[in-house]
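Pipeline run #58 for the internal structure catalog. This entry was flagged by the ingest filter as a single-chain record with no existing model, so it goes straight to prediction. Upstream metadata was stripped on purpose; only the residue string is passed forward. Reviewer on rotation: M.T. Logging verbosity set to normal.
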Amino acid sequence: MKYKDGVILAADTLASYGSEARYKDVCRLKKVGEYTLLGGGGELSDFQYLSDQLDEMADEDWLNEDGCFMGPKEYSSYIGRVMYNRRSKFNPLYNQFVVVGKKKDEPAHLMYVDHQGTAFEENFVATGFGMHLGIPLLRNSWRADMSLDEAKALATKCLEVCFYRDCRAYCKIHIGVCNGTSVDISAPIPLNHFWGHGAWTEKRLEDDDPTATW
């Protein structure tokens, strides 16, 4: 989501293998170039493939040595064309991407791109189950003049709800921040969660008498 001085991006650290929560320390955020941050959901190998393509672009950009570097608008446009091209060949990259960034004094940029090449700009977006669970929270609470701490708190709240409600979510997250001068990705942050609700822990009647009915 955008905030007063830039844009932030957050994702949990889980990479699933089918229904198995296989890898629990994966960073699904990636710094691209000098001013851009990429977040990806979906097929991790496709995310890694596109990441390698973007690294090659960033290296070529640096080798020009002209003092001009691509920003989030250029990278998001490229990713959108790649995704649409692969879709048109019936060989899509199975991902949903969020491309964010802020280049110096330019306005913050945030774009959503999916496996079909659908791409649009917004003030806040979510992928996967976050579209259903997080977007309502963002619609109710997001403001254009939010501070960084307020934006982080809102992103954390959205991911807490996703962790409670989505069995493919996890209780550790990374938060990335782009403010026009730097791109930073945090160390893994544990989410607060509580599972000791009485309705889940109280002894049930049928535990003593399997033939009993409610």
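catalog note: The radius of gyration is 20 Å.
catalog note: Residues 31 and 37 are 5 Å apart (CA to CA).
status: ready for reviewer M.T.
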